[in-house]
Amino acid sequence: MKESLISVIVPVYKVEKYLDRCVESIIGQTYSNLEVILVDDGSPDHCPAMCDAWAKKDSRIKVIHKKNGGLSDARNAGMEVSNGDLIGFVDSDDWIAPDMYQCLYEIMKADNSDISACGVKMVWENGTASRMLTESGNCVLSKEEAMRALIEESWIKQPVWYKLYNADIIRHISFPVGKYHEDVFWSYQVIGAAGRVSVIDHVGYYYWQRSGSIMGEAYSLKRLDAIEAMEHRQDYLENNFPALATRARCSLWFSCMYHGQKILCEIQKKDQANAMEYLRGVIRRHPFLSNSLNELGRKEKIWLSIEKTSLQAACRIRNALGIGL
After folding, report:
1. How many domains does the chain have?
2. Do 292 and 153 share a domain, yes or no?
3. How high is the pLDDT of residue 68?
4. Would you state the pLDDT for residue 278?
5. CA-CA distance, 72 to 248, in Å (whole number)?
6. What single-letter DSSP state applies at residue 307?
7. Can you give the residue range of the structural domain that contains 243?
């Protein structure tokens, strides 16, 4: 039986130092039935020419040149032209193991899953010792188990780039253009559309940590997009996965504390008040019912109680104790 075509979408922007390493790791896959879509997102360096050169070297590579629109816009553009039965994403400063897609494909087929995910190793440009981002172990998760794992950031993490997806369940779900933390807006919707999710701990993805990346930048108020995404997720869960709503609300409140801590430490005082009021508004919009607190642990209840009384106090205490940052 013919193997399924996998479309691999690679957004490209100002990564000429890393692009060859990334593309080489994809075209060198043991799984060869690939369509590699390089999306030049209006990159101002040599990346557009590098993409075209790669297309001449390998007939499986197609290139899209477009006006700069950001990571989400580039991924959406790649999905629009993709022909694969399955879709994967790779960020252009990262690279993948030679057998990543072979492993993801085989486990997806064996488990009859709509999503498969492998192990991720974080590798630092500055020489910091590498470490695993993902859990150790293998499992097959039902839709509800996968959603819980995403909320708890356990078996399933937010990023899309170390997973393989059934194209039918994702093509109608666009990434939000112009938002930071676009994966947080997208991933819960995809899991909600999926059936089963397979997870293996075989290291397939190498996540490059560099100072010039978006996530390597200093904290800014754009990071509050993650809270907006979690609010959307909370509303979705209330309607579709009510048994997980309390756990997700707890995650939302703790995320508000984390961002409050960062705001008090790293944002200029003139901008702190409005940002903290935004976070307080989120908390007010998603209150805990008294009986739902029984699902939470003792430490969680204590922190949430302090946060409910005063978000700023909770953040200052956690900063003083070195908790959460």
Report:
1. 2
2. no
3. 97
4. 98
5. 24
6. H
7. 219-321
Q: Which two tokens stand for residue 1?
A: 């039986």
Flag whether 25 is in a domain.
Answer: yes
Phi-psi region of 173 (alpha: psi -120 to 50; beta: other; left: phi over 0): beta
* Cβ count within 10 A of residue 161: 18
The verdict on 236 and 170 lying in the same domain is no
On whether the pTM is more than 0.90, the answer is yes
- Give 1's pLDDT tier (boundaries 50, 70, 90): very low
pLDDT tens across 271-292, in order? 999 999 999 999 999 998 767 7
DSSP 78-100: HHHH---SEEEE--TT-EE-TTH
Residue 278 included in any domain: yes
Closest CA to 93 of 223, 212, 217: 212
- 166 and 262 in a common domain: no
Last residue of a domain, one of 187, 215, 243: 215
Q: Quick: pLDDT tens for 232-241.
A: 999 999 999 9
Q: How far is CA 88 from each of CA 115, 170, 188, rounded to the nearest angstrom?
A: 10, 11, 17
Copy the structure tokens of residue 96: 């993948």
Using left for φ > 0, alpha for ψ between -120 and 50, and beta otherwise, residue 14 falls in left
Both 195 and 234 in one domain: the answer is no
pLDDT in tens, 298-310: 999 999 999 999 9
CB atoms within 10 A of CB 28: 12
Which pLDDT does position 215 carry in this prediction? Answer: 53
The answer to whether 63 and 19 have CB atoms below 8 angstroms apart is no
What are the residues facing 203 on neighbouring strands? 119
pLDDT at site 213: 53
Please check whether residues 131 and 182 belong to one and the same domain: yes
In a domain, 167, yes or no: yes
Angstrom distance (rounded) from CA 146 to CA 300 = 22
Place of tokens 């106090």: 313
Read off the pLDDT of each residue in 77-106 and give the average, rounded to a whole number.
98
Does residue 1 lie in a domain region?
no
Angle at 187 between CA 257 and CA 249, to 5 degrees: 35
